[in-house]
Design brief:
Blueprint: H1 3-17, H2 27-38, H3 47-57, E1 62-64, E2 79-81, H4 82-89, H5 93-105, E3 110-114, H6 120-128, E4 133-138, H7 141-154, E5 159-163, H8 166-176, E6 181-184, H9 190-203, E7 209-213, H10 219-230, E8 236-239, E9 243-247, E10 255-258
Parallel strand pairs: 3-4, 3-6, 4-5, 6-7, 8-10
Antiparallel strand pairs: 1-2, 7-9, 8-9
Helix pairs in contact: 2-5, 3-4, 5-6, 8-9, 9-10
Bound molecules: S-adenosylmethionine (SAM).
């Protein structure tokens, strides 16, 4: 099955099985849904961040890309247009706002993002979680340079950008801080995703959450997600199709949810 068919099949499956607000009985999930999905308008698009996105989308300069991940389905050349990277790599406003809201909802103090790209999602999280420290990791130096200048432009003091491979930086960071959220949005292979999950499992705050982006991007990513949610230490899992969230908090009764965003 081609990867497009794989995504379509899983999308239709999700659409038919996913639930809306009225069928949620878990109090944690109900309040998350109310706060971060039904009332998402409380978190407006940020003009200053959206101006950065607009500028990136119209910038046709080429930059060198050092791809340390699973590659792109669109363009795997070593020099890519900034506009194309912005179009295909950056999370939408809605997803960025959801992640910012989710971080606030669980009062996250330390957040790790694997895969900064140009930093628009990082900026949304930082804007709505000004007391939290966000550590974001990017392996492609020219992409990281643009993210860094975006962070300087908006002058957030709660973002620390780490340039390098997730495999080198994540273990060091996990030894230095207790992360409340680890958001994995890069190197979308089954093996890498399971490796980051295993690393994080030992060190994350036991009340913390891991967010996996693009869980249906490929068969490998779907296998990784299915294996993660079956792990004996995972209590709840929430499948939003574009991303999946898991908790290892043993106070939650083990349950797998599929929700519409
Ligand atoms: C999908 S983009 C991140 C998008 C961003 N989180 C957002 O929400 O807009 C993934 C990024 O991860 C980076 N990346 C992939 N594999 C990596 C690795 N092994 N180490 C460091 N960076 C990596 C890529 O260079 C790319 O910029």
């Amino acid at each position: 099955m081609s990867s497009h068919l794989h995504i379509l099949k899983n999308y239709l499956n999700h659409w038919f099985k996913a639930k809306g607000r009225h069928s949620i009985h878990s109090p944690f999930l109900f309040s998350l849904y109310e706060n971060c999905i039904s009332n998402i308008a409380k978190y407006p698009f940020e003009n200053s961040i959206e101006q950065i996105r607009t500028n990136l989308l119209s910038n046709n300069n080429l930059i060198a890309v050092n791809d340390l991940g699973a590659g792109s389905k669109i363009d795997n050349s070593q020099k890519r247009k900034i506009s194309q990277i912005a179009k295909y790599s950056l999370k939408s406003q809605k997803e960025a706002i959801f992640l910012a809201c989710f971080s606030k909802h669980i009062s996250a103090q330390n957040i790790i993002e694997l895969g900064t790209s140009f930093g628009t999602t990082t900026l949304y999280i930082a804007k709505h979680n000004q007391k939290a420290q966000i550590h974001t990791i990017e392996g492609s130096p020219e992409i990281a340079k643009i993210a860094s200048s975006n962070f300087q432009q908006l002058n957030f003091e709660n973002i620390k950008l780490h340039i390098g491979n997730f495999d080198d930086i994540l273990p060091k960071l996990l030894n230095e801080i207790t992360a409340d959220i680890i958001y994995i949005d890069g190197n979308h292979t089954k093996e890498a995703t399971l490796r980051y999950f295993d690393m994080a499992l030992e060190k994350i705050n036991p009340k913390g959450f891991m967010v996996f982006d693009d869980i249906y991007w490929s068969k490998g990513m779907t296998k990784a997600w299915k294996s993660i949610i079956k792990h004996p230490r995972v209590s709840i899992s929430i499948d939003f199709f574009h991303l999946g969230i898991i908790s290892i908090d043993q106070d939650f009764t083990k349950q797998d949810f599929r929700l519409r965003m």
